[in-house]
Design goal:
Layout lengths: L1 E5 L6 E5 L7 H6 L6 E7 L2 H15 L3 E7 L8 H13 L7 E6 L1 H13 L6 E5 L2 H7 L4 E6 L2 E8 L4 E4 L9 H18 L1 H9 L1 H5 L3 H21 L15 H10 L7 H18 L5 H13 L11 H10 L3 E2 L2 E2 L1 E4 L5 E4 L4 H12 L13
Parallel strand pairs: 2-9, 3-4, 3-5, 5-6, 6-9
Antiparallel strand pairs: 1-2, 7-8, 10-11, 12-13
Helix pairs in contact: 3-4, 5-6, 5-9, 6-7, 6-11, 10-11, 10-13, 11-12, 11-14, 13-14
Bound molecules: adenosine-5'-diphosphate and zinc ion.
């Protein structure tokens, strides 16, 4: 079992990572000061696969377990579904001593976390993330919430979990595209913080693609440790000290908006965003062409997109300027000074932004039968 401590005073918690952890969940939760009543929230893809193992383990540790299983998908991050969860809590007789357990990806985590933040003005919750994205990113840091028709995550709360139990063997059943998208965020951590970690992704690409649970356990732990370092410095994401985590995200959000969140999974948009950001870094002389090619090669190896966005660079630039990560009207962009070191730039010339966007909109180059590029 690997542990990552997230030190936030009274709101401190431990992330636990181990293959097979699901079956030991009851024993782990028994070591925390929680009431005996648990309420599991999951979705119809995840619950049949992992609900029985988790709930058996919880009951064996003499917890009482109720549950609500929702349809899958981002569409559930709505007021309607929040209401469904709250009504189900009422129906089950839940009270202030109930702990909510989120079993699923980021969608379930955000919803169940927000329900926990508001039920009786806040009850404990435990994250049991089952997507790579949730294990390395969204389950850590306490951001919870739902979408409104007007925009994503417009309503929410910071509510730190009491524990995170990440079992990398659950990733075996993740649809390939969801798995690859999660790898986009994993590569991001290497780019902003840790060149050795980046090199280990290059070296171990095969076991990673095979989803080797032990290899994944070490990757998830490393990423959680990096995320936790940012979170403890800026719990409420106010001071800008979490900004490096947005590497690839400003460009990525423009791509997601331009394609109406339909064409790309979040991690894929981040991959494209990193390609654009690395173009800017290279043009400013901060990133060598060799290192930029390493990024592109690794994204490619993991099956992530690096070009071909069906939009035009001028439109992307307009969306880009509207992104909330502006600082008194000036655009803040996270760049890298080589692999493993991020920095924020406030004054990237428009010309360079356009050039970077042009690059990700370009039609991808296909390899000819002889192996060369057309
Ligand atoms: P994210 O974590 O990327 O925000 P979601 O919560 O929407 O994404 O999960 C992505 C999809 O994968 C959903 O359809 C969800 O039901 C499904 N899913 C999540 N975890 C697993 C798993 N371990 N095995 C199979 N499918 C899963
Ligand atoms: Zn992200």
């Amino acid at each position: 079992l690997r542990r990552v401590a997230v030190r936030l005073g009274a709101r401190s918690y431990t992330i636990r990572v181990a293959p097979g952890l699901l079956a030991a969940a009851g024993k782990e939760l028994d070591t925390l000061r929680l009431g005996r009543r648990l309420f599991v929230v999951s979705d119809t893809n995840v619950h049949p696969l992992y609900g029985p193992t988790l709930e058996r383990s919880l009951r064996a540790a003499s917890f009482r377990v109720d549950r609500l299983v929702l349809p899958p998908g981002e569409g559930q991050k709505s007021l309607t579904t929040l209401r469904r969860i709250l009504d189900a809590l009422v129906d089950s007789g839940a009270d202030r001593s109930t702990t909510i357990v989120a079993l699923g990806g980021g969608v379930v985590g955000d919803l169940a976390g927000f329900a926990a933040a508001t039920w009786h003005r806040g009850v404990p919750y435990v994250q049991v993330p089952t997507t790579l994205l949730a294990q390395v990113d969204s389950s850590v840091g306490g951001k919870t919430g739902i979408n409104l028709p007007a925009g994503k995550n417009l309503v929410g709360a910071f509510h730190q979990p009491t524990a995170v139990l990440a079992d990398p063997s659950t990733l075996a059943t993740l649809p390939p595209r969801e798995y690859r998208a999660g790898l986009g965020e994993v590569i991001k951590y290497g780019m902003i913080r840790d060149e050795r970690f980046f090199a280990s992704l290059e070296r171990d690409a095969d076991p990673i693609i095979r989803r080797d649970p032990d290899r994944l356990a070490s990757i998830v732990t490393r990423c959680c440790r990096m995320k936790a370092e940012y979170v403890v410095r800026d719990e409420l994401d106010r001071s800008g000290r979490r900004a490096h985590l947005n590497y690839g995200h400003t460009f990525g959000h423009a791509v997601e908006t331009a394609t109406r969140y339909r064409r790309y999974r979040h991690g894929e948009a981040v991959a494209l965003g990193m390609v654009a950001a690395s173009r800017v870094s290279a043009d400013l002389g901060r990133l060598s062409e060799t290192d930029r090619k390493r990024l592109l090669a690794l994204l490619d190896r993991f099956g992530l997109p690096t070009s071909g966005v069906p939009s035009d660079p001028d439109q992307l630039l307009r969306l880009f300027a509207r992104d909330k990560k502006t600082d008194e009207g000036r655009l803040r962009i996270v760049l890298t000074k080589g692999i493993g070191s991020a920095s924020v730039s406030r004054s990237v010339p428009r010309r360079l932004l356009l050039r970077a966007l042009r690059e990700i909109c370009a039609v991808p180059r296909r390899k000819s039968p002889t192996g060369g590029s057309r």
